[in-house]
Amino acid sequence: MQRALPFILEDRTGSNSNSDFDDMYDRMFYHIARSPGRTTTLIYEMPIRSSRHRRNLPLDREPIVHLEFLPDESLGNISFMKAPYQTTIPMSRYLRKTTIFGSSLSRKFVGSDGREYRWSYRSVAGQEWSCTTVENYLVAHYDLKPSNVRMYDVSGNNLTIYEPFAHLAVEIISTLIIMRHIAQHNL
């Protein structure tokens, strides 16, 4: 039996509001952008790897997700724009703390498939962020390049999404951005 390859998306810049997530096997590509002076982060599904399109050209597509943060950078709304899952939900309701008094860096969300998923910060050795099912199956993890490792032509920051959960890629990327935003702004 041959195992499917996970989707390993290189986070080109490591920036939470301006980057590209490109699968190393050219299967999926996402562009993350925030306009200067704005508090809305947009996620675009792209047809090609970021290194193959010119960054200075305007995007010729509509974003598939809007992450609207409030002017003070607190949580606002998440809007999914791509059919069939089109909705707007307050981020705090979509991505809830796992316990009332627990860390805000451990949160859960219900995916479009109806299952519950959890993000946690540094709960697994070597993983900056880990996403699991309620049954504790690893769905995805985000890893930062170790500061003492030199990289050539790649950033070293990767989001790995395991193949059975590839249909949730947009939700995984969206919630990862929100989780990293929560950590960055101590929300």
List the helices and strands and how they pair.
Blueprint: E1 7-11, E2 19-23, E3 29-34, E4 40-46, E5 65-68, E6 77-80, E7 87-90, H1 91-94, E8 96-97, E9 106-110, E10 116-121, E11 129-133, E12 138-143, E13 158-161, H2 169-184
Antiparallel strand pairs: 1-2, 1-13, 2-3, 3-4, 4-5, 5-6, 6-7, 8-9, 9-10, 10-11, 11-12, 12-13
Rough outline: globular
CATH architecture heading: Beta Barrel
Spell out the helices and strands N to C: EEEEEEEHEEEEEEH
Approximate strand percentage:
25-35%
- Give the biggest beta sheet: 13 strands, antiparallel
Strand pairing plus helix content: what structural class? mainly beta
Protein name: DUF6593 domain-containing protein
Domain DUF6593: 18-181
Brief summary of the model shown:
The chain is mainly beta. The chain has helices at residues 91-94, 169-184; strands at 7-11, 19-23, 29-34, 40-46, 65-68, 77-80, 87-90, 96-97, 106-110, 116-121, 129-133, 138-143, 158-161.
Structure description:
It is a single chain. The chain is mainly beta and 187 residues long. The chain starts with 6 loop residues before the first strand and ends with a helix. It has a 13-stranded antiparallel beta sheet. The longest helix is centred in the C-terminal third of the chain and has 16 residues, at 169-184. The radius of gyration is 16 Å and the shape is globular. It contains two helices and 13 strands, in the order βββββββαββββββα. It has one domain (7-184): Porin (Beta Barrel), CATH 2.40.160. Strand 6 and strand 7 (87-90) form a beta hairpin.
